[in-house]
Amino acid sequence: MPVSVGSVRRMDYAGVIAQESERMADALATAPLTAQVPSCPDWSAADLAYHLGEVQDFWSQIVGHAPAGPDDVDDTERRPDDELVPFLRTRTQALLAELAAHDPADPCWSWSSAGGTVGWVLRRQAHEALVHRVDAEQTAGLPVGDPGIALAVDGVDEMLGVMVSGLPPWATFAPDGQRVRLLATDAGREWVMAFGRFHGTSPSTGREYDEECAELVGGAPWEGEDQDVTAAVAGAAWDLELWLWGRGSLDGLARDGDQAAIDRLRAVVAESTQ
Hints:
By secondary structure, this protein is α+β, with helices and mostly antiparallel strands. It has helices at residues 5-10, 13-28, 45-64, 84-100, 118-140, 149-164, 237-244, 259-272, and strands at residues 36-37, 40-44, 172-184, 189-201, 208-221, 231-235, 254-257. The two termini are 21 Å apart.
């Protein structure tokens, strides 16, 4: 479901981008440039700094050129490793400046069927900065800070509703009967994900698709009623978000039902966030 302009204005996503990006840069400034990123073993601390800087540079150009698409975006040149943390800080400021110059309702290119506005970029980049701040703290051996229930719930919602769900209009979804429910016990929120396959032919490339996927089919305040699901995972919203992003384990989460379905959800999420 597309994020509404109203919800963007209720949550200070620009403030989240600023705060989480600064925390990330501060954490990386304390880590050796060659330190391995636990959640992305092929990345060093320098790679992590470049990644978010590159992403923020890309989206600052997208918003600045809106509603034009990525064909108008210049490639981001990689600086020497010892310049990457300062580079990240400059790219954060550039992104925030472009976002501040636009209304959340302004049209803007995005890769998601749920997108199409600057508000979508605000939300996506807030959670991009948040998850990579976690990476930076884990890389630097620092305690991982909890962002609070409201932002964590929004992160779970954005992960399941945007990063995983959302097929293009030319695709169809064929559910296979397996469903997993996630419960944020500290927020009274639930999400139900249905597994299946999506089929369709891209009108732009002619490529035919027949691939496994999962779609968000339910989400409402939780009242504890039974659901026809294969499995359930319950816990604090932040623990759910860390697990979904592969930055935390299942150890602190309650599980019920078929463990294979829970593992299947995590695999689909991992594939969707590559």
